[in-house]
Design a protein that fits this description.
Blueprint lengths: L3 E2 L17 E10 L2 E10 L13 E5 L1 H8 L12 E5 L5 E3 L2 H5 L8 E6 L10 H9 L2 E6 L25 H17 L7 E6 L1 H8 L6 E5 L7 H5 L2 E6 L7 H9 L7 E2 L2 H7 L9 E6 L13 H11 L3 H7 L6 H7 L2 H19 L3
Parallel strand pairs: 2-6, 7-8, 7-9, 9-10, 10-11, 11-13, 12-13
Antiparallel strand pairs: 1-2, 2-3, 3-8, 4-5
Helix pairs in contact: 3-12, 8-12
Length: 359
């Protein structure tokens, strides 16, 4: 089945003042065994700059019912009256897209794609800054909502006790994103033209998914790997400040790949390695160190993190009292460093992916 469109809220009716908008956005839903799975999609505006309608707010939801059910392993749906609908403002130059703006894309035969995989109690907008940056750089970007998402109160992970509302498996969602969105809509059919990028549990998805892909990026979550992941270009990103997935385990996993992996201590040093005529490292380990290094969720967009602060901060005292895993949310509430981290990291990751996907 093909993807069906549901525009991200109401888009502005005025024509954008940007002379050359950089990327389009559309919220889609794909069907998997009668389940609707939200997929946000961004793509470059090359060839379709003529009429741009500024995209309205991204439709984001934080489900306290889902968070409670998953964290306490209740295995059932809860009342959703405390769930929050939030609008996240798109970045500059993001325009409302549709099938017409897809059809206007130039050089569709050479398009490359990135699938973004969120983590445990994450959402499809967790890496929205990266999504927008990649789309403006020429990639088609698809970010699906997985069963563990804090936005989808209708589905629960497979580990749920009573099996009510179990969401589609990650492998099935990735397969259908490739088929229904990237292939059917954009003509991107080969896995070699697709990269996988994931954060936390999504890093596991990016690394453990079988098949030969264009490249893989594991952010704050590289542990196990399988042969395909090591054969593909691989960028591992981790931090000593991560209190959820410790750096020691990631160090050991990187050391176990079977060959020497170049290490970098900052995004700028990774970018410098690709400057001029230098060839980008096919496999690389970017490791933040020191007392000011990012926490587990510092790698996410400040827009989604600030939305979580807005909704969840009042509940922190109760969560601490009950011993609920905070997933570094309490650390981020103090540091608020997502924007500072993204400033250098997104250009470095984008440049690395462009180098790996150039052929």
């Amino acid at each position: 089945m093909g993807a069906t469109s549901s525009r991200a809220r109401a888009a502005s009716t005025s024509t954008s003042t940007e002379a050359s908008p950089k990327a389009f956005f559309e919220d889609l839903r794909i069907t998997i065994d009668e389940q609707d799975v939200p997929v946000s999609v961004w793509w470059p505006a090359n060839g379709s700059e003529g009429a741009c309608v500024t995209a309205g707010p991204y439709s984001h939801k934080i489900s306290l019912a889902k968070i409670t059910s998953v964290l306490f392993r209740l295995g059932r749906k809860l009342p959703t009256f405390l769930d929050k609908e939030l609008g996240l403002e798109p970045g500059k130059g993001i325009c409302a897209g549709d099938s017409g703006s897809v059809a206007g894309l130039e050089s569709r035969s050479s398009l490359k794609a990135v699938i973004l995989c969120h983590g445990y109690l994450g959402s499809r907008f967790d890496l929205v800054d990266l999504a927008e940056g990649l789309a403006k750089s020429g990639f088609v970007v698809a970010a699906p909502e997985f069963a563990e998402s804090l936005s989808c109160s209708e589905t629960l992970p497979k580990a749920s006790q009573d099996g009510i509302g179990i969401g589609a498996a990650r492998d099935d969602i990735l397969r259908e994103v490739q088929a229904q969105v990237l292939s059917d809509r954009f003509g991107i059919k080969e896995k070699s033209s697709i990269s996988l990028v994931g954060h936390s549990a999504g890093a596991g998805t990016a690394v453990l998914t079988r098949g030969r892909f264009g490249a893989r990026v594991a952010i704050a979550g590289f542990r196990k790997q399988q042969e395909d992941a090591v054969l593909d270009p691989l960028l591992v990103i981790a931090s000593e400040g991560d209190n959820v997935i410790g750096i020691e385990g990631i160090n050991a996993s990187v050391a176990s790949v079977g060959f020497a992996v170049p290490q970098f201590d900052s995004p700028r040093s990774l970018s410098a390695s690709m400057a001029g005529d230098s060839e980008a490292p096919r496999t690389a380990f970017l490791k933040y160190a020191g007392p000011a290094s990012p926490c587990h969720i510092s790698f996410l967009s400040s827009r989604t993190n600030e939305a979580m602060v807005q909704v969840l901060a009042p509940l922190l005292p109760v969560a601490r009292l009950l011993g609920v895993p905070l997933l570094d949310f309490d650390v981020y509430e103090q540091t608020r460093d997502s924007s500072a981290i993204s400033k250098d990291l997104i250009p470095a990751v984008t440049s690395w992916l462009l180098e790996q996907m150039a052929t």
